[in-house]
Amino acid sequence: MVRTNTDTASRQTALNALHAELETCRCCPKMIGPAVHSESVLSPVMLIGQAPGTREIAQLKPFCWTAGKTLFNWFAPLGLDEPTFRQRILISAVCRCFPGKNPKGGDRVPDRDEIARCERWWRGELELLQPRLLLPVGKLAIAQLLPVARLDAVIGRQLSYRAPAGWEADVIPLPHPSGASTWFKMEPGRTLLAQALALIAAHPAWQSVLNAAD
């Protein structure tokens, strides 16, 4: 589908409005805000994370701490350093506020109702962008697009997503880069991550982002 300049301007206005509305969201009483979103960039590639942590809430920037450092270190050899990635690729998430701490350790996993209430934000971004490549990061994000029983069944593969509106996108899942995770540091995770990154590097949508004018 060929997009006109008018269409692009209209989608940009709508994305800006969606993010402005997101900033006012207070729908989940157990979630700790304010809600976080990336730069409002129209991109053929969209990354979907799980939920922000305390640092992301403080800085109002997704993937801005330890997990982000690991994530952007994965992408740097593919041609995009962190500042350029943030300028050219929209970073979304399943939930946009911090879920709080789990009494047993680590961050609390958002519950089903919180995930459902927050779905409108990432799906709104998805429909405005209609990206050619989706990068879900972590099992919670992957599960919003694909059935996933085990990470090793989907990481390292290029899969397909068909939106309710009928358009399609390729999906290349990634593990979550959390410092608490060892999955991507051990086999088969290490090899499967390398395979996934190679698929991303070769994808035409990624190449178009690399070649975008500054």
What does this structure look like?
This protein starts with a helix and ends with a helix. By secondary structure, the protein is α/β, with parallel strands linked by helices. Strand 4 (159-162) and strand 5 (168-171) form a beta hairpin. 40% of the residues lie in helices and 10% in strands. It has one domain: Uracil-DNA Glycosylase, subunit E (3-Layer(aba) Sandwich), CATH 3.40.470. The protein has helices at residues 5-22, 54-59, 66-75, 82-88, 112-129, 139-143, 189-202, 204-210, and strands at residues 45-49, 90-93, 133-136, 159-162, 168-171. InterPro entries: UDG_Type-4/5 (IPR051536), Uracil-DNA_glycosylase-like (IPR005122), Uracil-DNA_glycosylase-like_sf (IPR036895). This is Uracil-DNA glycosylase. GO terms for molecular function: 4 iron, 4 sulfur cluster binding; deaminated base DNA N-glycosylase activity; metal ion binding.
Radius of gyration: 16 Å
Mean pLDDT: 95
Taken as a percent bin, the fraction of beta residues is: 5-15%
Low-confidence stretches: none
Specify the CATH architecture.
Answer: 3-Layer(aba) Sandwich
Shape: globular
In whole angstroms, the N-to-C terminal distance is 24 Å
Give the CATH H-level superfamily: Uracil-DNA glycosylase-like domain
Question: What is the makeup of the main sheet?
Answer: 5 strands, mixed
According to DSSP, the number of beta strands is 5
Structural class: alpha/beta
Read across the widest sheet, the strand sequence of neighbours is 2-1-3-5-4
**CATH-assigned fold name:** Uracil-DNA Glycosylase, subunit E
Number of discrete helical segments:
8
Order of helices and strands: HEHHHEHEHEEHH
Number of domains: 1
Percent of residues in helical segments?
Answer: 25-40%
